[in-house]
User: What shape does this take?
Amino acid sequence: PLPIVAIVGRPNVGKSTLVNRLSESKDSIVHDQPGITRDRTYRHAYWQDREFSVVDTGGLIFDDDTEFLPLIREQVMVALAEATVAIFVVDGQTGVTGGDEAIASWLREHSVPVLLAVNKCESPTAGLIQAAQFWELGLGNPFPISGIHGSGTGELLDELIQYL
Ligand code: GDP
Ligand code: MG
Assistant: This one.
């Protein structure tokens, strides 16, 4: 079986877009509506000579009380339990939110290695500043990326395959 990379983060930060980018597949559900991807979906991906499976998760919501919340959390738990490494996606345009901090403290208690992807960083120069804000999450180096444009994903993947 292929190693599993779990993509976690708040709704609407760009998880599904990143999964599509990493797998170059356009059939994953991507909508503007927050949290639309309720189920885990798997995509085959590779980088250099490494193959892996990317699992999209429903949004991790810690400061909301929707009826789906327990189900979403359970899906994320399952995805993380089987994951070799997780990519925690945050929104570089909104900056650090309370939800990000809650997820970060929860991830720090898990043993799975976490890479921090600061999405929506289309501008290389602004992206560095946007990404630097996320050092405070205590999850190491924040990688500025754009799931839409693909910028920065090479550096993220170079780091990712060290864990596979
Ligand atoms: P998810 O809820 O975390 O799966 O997020 P989606 O992938 O569905 O994206 C949520 C919204 O963010 C959509 O409107 C996307 O077009 C937008 N988005 C995703 N990735 C990027 C990006 O790299 N840059 C910008 N500017 N917007 C993005
Ligand atoms: Mg999604």
